[in-house]
Amino acid sequence: MTPTARDPGALPLAGAAHGEIDAAAVRLKRRSQAVLRRSLHIRTVDTGSCGACESEIRLLSSPYYDFHRLGLFFTPTPRHADCLLVTGPGCRAMDHALLSAYEAMPAPKVVVAVGACPLGGVFGADRYTRGEITDVVPVDVVVPGCPPSPLALIHGLLLALDRIEERITLQEGEQ
Amino acid sequence: MNEGESGLTLTQLARDGTSSQPMVSNLRMSAAAAGDLVAKLAPIARFADMFVRPAEHGLERVLVFTDDQSGGYLRLTCPLDESFPVPLSRVLPAAYQEECELYELWGVEPGGGKPVNRVILPPSAETAEPLRLPGGDRLSSEVRAPHVVQGEAIEFPWGPIRGAGQESLYLGLVTTGEELLDAYLAMFHKHRGLEHRMVGQTLARALFLAERCEGLGSVGNALALARAAEAALGIAVEPAAEVTRCLALELERIYHHVGSLAALGAATGLSVGQAEAEILLEDCLRLNARAFGHRYLFNLLEVGGVRRGADLAALDSGLDRLEARFESLVADLLATNSYVDRLEGAGTITADAAHRLGLVGPVARAAGVATDLRRTHQVSSASYVGFRPAREQAGDSLARMLVGAAEVRESLRLVRHWVRSGTPLQDDWAAPAPGQDHAGGPAEGLGWAETCRGEALVHLEVAEGRVSFARLRPAATRNWRAFDDALRARNVFTDVPIVEASFWLTVAGFAR
Question: What is the least distance, in Å, from the CA of A18 to any CA of chain B?
């Protein structure tokens, strides 16, 4: 079996009671966000997108959106990255590259899944694609849309940093 | 008319064939006879595609040729189990990519012991099932054409994950430090198996997938697929819907070339030019959204017509501002010597290479090849009145940028003409087009469109309203064939992003 970052055996809290894990997770999340919230360096990974999400991502640094004013920056190396911005349906041929990029990032780190593809909204799981990238790396924030506009992307990034309030939780969305 | 030394033309050669749809002739013959014919066709026609399809009596190989002077396609079919007397790519270099694909998909060797590259299956696929190999045979684990990098040169690996907002692809740059000696591309990390997914699906679902083949070319690819389905099922498209499709196609072309300018700004380190182009690109995308409800014009087409009309008032009010900003940007760029100098001579493609590799679209037109389906392969006569194709001779990045600028001007003129001259266009929300249930017996159709990157081709077979076979050939599939050639033509390391931005192809289109 291919090891993934989702492998529960890798978590030090494995075996602890659910309540303890939840409380520890909340504390950890708060501390990570406190570390990250002033400035965030972003590494992008395309796992098989049609290219439209990439176009919207490129526009994040354009004068209309200028995400640098919010302390957000692209970085060419995962070693400097706090955030992994992932597009595409998780093509299996990209598994290794995606996981390597994730593992090369220093902790704390967040993963933002961009568009309908990494949510499984365009392709299912089959011999070509994973369907959902959560099978390979853990996802903290999802930004739906086909493609999501640059404003939606900025919203998602600020959400990942806890600089804005979540309007709807995953549980509410599923109901 | 494109004539070889013998005075033959594609039209004459196609005369003996049958025709199942206008502008398409079919010839069926043995592989030996096909080999002779291909040798005759190579100098006088453009090789457009090759694929394998299942037929009643086993598998068949289909080759598609076209004539860029007189228009029309020739589909050459021969049995797959017969091999060609010589490897096809020896007489038809453009077909090498397809030869590699056929080996991986069907286990067909090119013949003559010619090595093939692995292009479809990921390198880790030894344990995966073969895709469509008859008999369930596995491919041998090593199908890559061996290449040796030695002496003072190294292969600098770049990818598959690259810079911010760049698509995944592996680029092996062979260099001694500054000069680029060679380049190897591996492009199928993003292969999503779109053609395979379409089989058994409804036409609406196939159209949805075709749009996502290349997000930055959604209208062009969807239009080619819709036209293939319409040809197969004999559905006529209302002239108003046809012009509306062309309107969307030209809006796509405008934002495509502006996007290329933004990428060229980034590649040359010209921040102001990049920022100006990005402002213009955002304006184009917002105009798309106001006109058709989506920044990248998704979900617009359907088989038989379009799903909605354009908001003409919104389009009309945005065009003049767009044009003024565009002209000002291009004038400023061309007056910046440091920018023009970087583009000049970078990634040169000769006219001969462009023909030999079967290049299409702006890349071919910048090398002096007259190819534009809007002039020669028009589906409807009403759409492109007074159309003037762009053309340059130098074949370098500057020529491609100039072709792009000329095409934006021409597209703006066409859009303005359609919007302001009272040309009938689709009314707001379209009524369901005729033939919505798409019933009917097995039929096949070839569809094409001059997308922003050049000719997109779709071969579609339909049975009982569902796709039974699909072959997508976006323009990117053809033009990436020339990318390594362009890099080899006396460039340095830092020319790579410039050549890539001036080609402005998508990896998604190639990998499908």
Answer: 37
The two tokens of residue B439 are 């019933």
Give contacts of A84 with chain B, Cβ < 8 Å: none
Give the per-residue SS3 of B235-281: CCCCHHHHHHHHHHHHHHHHHHHHHHHHHHHHHCCCHHHHHHHHHHH
Distance CA B399, CA B365 (A): 9
Q: What is the ipTM of this complex?
A: 0.87
Residue B225: predicted pLDDT: 95
Least confident of A111-115, B422-426, B475-479, B492-496: B422-426
The partner residue sitting opposite A128, judged by closest CB among B165, B167, B192, is: B192
Considering chain B, what is the average pLDDT of its residues?
83
- Chain B residues inside the 8 Å CB shell of A146: 298
* Nearest-CB residue to A62 (from B122, B167, B275): B275
Sign of CA dihedral B264, B500, B341, B335: negative
User: Does the structure show a pLDDT above 70 at B429?
Assistant: no
Report whether pLDDT(B16) > 50. yes
Domain parsing of chain A, residue ranges: 39-162
**In 3-state terms, what secondary structure has residue B506?**
coil
CATH architecture of the domain covering A39-162: 3-Layer(aba) Sandwich (3.40)
State residue A45's pLDDT score: 94
User: B121 to chain A: nearest residue by CA?
Assistant: A93
Q: How far is A22 from chain B (nearest CA, A)?
A: 34
Does the pLDDT value for residue B430 go beyond 50?
Answer: yes
Highest CATH level, class, for B194-511: mainly alpha
Partners of A48 on chain B (C-beta within 8 Å) are 168, 189-192, 508, 511
Positions of chain A with pLDDT under 50 = 1-13
For residue B383, pLDDT over 80 is answered with: no
Higher pLDDT pick, A166 / B222: B222
Query: Which residue does chain A place closest to B197, by CA atoms?
Result: A123
Nearest to B47 by CA among B84, B27, B74: B74
Chain A nearest C-alpha distance from B265 (Å): 12
CA distance B212 to B104: 24
CATH among 2.40.160, 3.30.460, 3.30.70, 3.30.1760 for B10-136? 3.30.460
Domain assignments of chain B as residue spans, ordered by start? 10-136, 154-186, 194-511
